[in-house]
Each structure stands twice: as structure tokens, then as C-alpha cells.
Amino acid sequence: MTQTSPAITLEKLRRAIRLIDEPLIELTPQSLTYLRSYPALLAASRTLASTHDSGDLLLQLSAMCYGWMPRVARVNARHVDKASAALACALESDVLIDTAQMQDLANSLHSVVGTSKLLHFLRPQLYPIWDSKVALFWAMPFKKSLQAHMSNVGNYHRYIKDIEALIASPDFSAFYNDFDQAYSRRLDRLKIAPYSLSPVRAVEAAAFELSGGDYDDD
């Protein structure tokens, strides 16, 4: 029997706004770096996408995104052609690439998580980032290990569809505005120039906060 994830409500995601507005929470240096560098990486991705062919784009985005994770990029040369074609489709289309194309990217990068980050920086309006904290928050039932669960492109695709459903709901606009404003307030408190998030990124960022975020223990 196919397992599906339970609905994640906007009411539940709204709890993240209170966390983001909490002035006493200290973020780790890694999280601060993420926040500061995020808009720069989006801009760099746009520039790379407009000036390089798909083969170079795969390699350059991989190096950039894995530095942001941070991890060491491992691009499998045997899958580069198919992965580059999938990346080109993602860049040119306003709809999601299919799971087979996502798998081509994952085969090249040895990672669905890495694939999600490449796709997000290329098309932040369509593709959310997929990581262990978000996967656990989404509470998708799985019998195997978390790593096996996260390595399944079908789970990532279902996660995207869940976010699409949330964004299409009539109350999403109010949540998005409130969350985006709270996020800007946090950035301002941290002396980081405020920037707006895409609706997809806002949902994912709220899920990350509710899963524990990235805070100092001190």
C-alpha cells in the first residue's frame, strides 16, 4: 500500500513565526553564514544559468551548493550528460521536472539532498530544499532508516506537491506575508540586510524552524 504524508497545516507552520521573532535565540555561526550568503547564492546561480552551458552549470552549481551545505561535491562523470539535460529542463520549464530527471541528478551527485539544493538555487519558486530536519518534520511514514527515506526521489517529489497544495490554499497569502515580515525582522536584528523569501522557501524555512532549527546551545 502506498504511504502518503499527513497534511501539514498553515496553523502548524504559523508557530514558526513566534520562534523567528524570539530575540533570545542565538544562531550558530554556520546558520548565520547561511542567512548572509543565501541571496548572494541566488544571484550567482542566476548569473551562471544565463552565461554557461548545462554541463558547466552542473559542475559550477554543484561546487557552489556543496560549499553552502557544507559538503564535498562528488559528481559522477557517468551520469553528467543525463544530469545536465535534467538541469537544462528545470531551468527552461515552469513546471516540475519528473522523478526520472530528478533521479538523473541524484545519480550524478550521489544525493537527493544535493539535488534539491541545486534545483532550489536554480528555480527557488518551484523547488524546496530537502534535508533531514524537514523530512522528519514532514512526518512521512517510513520503515527504513532516515537516510534511505531521504534518498528516495519519490519522497522529495511528494514533499514538493505537499508544499504546492499549501501555497494554493486560500489562507496561504496571510501566512506568507506574516512569515516574510518576521524573517525580515530577524535578519535586521542580526545586522543582515533583509531580503524576501519565495513562498516555497518560506514554507520550508518554517518547517526547519519547527524541527529545531540551527541554534547555539549556550
UniProtKB/TrEMBL annotation:
Highest rank taxon of the organism: Bacteria
Protein name per the record: Uncharacterized protein
Organism, as annotated: Pseudomonas chlororaphis
Source organism phylogeny: Bacteria, Pseudomonadati, Pseudomonadota, Gammaproteobacteria, Pseudomonadales
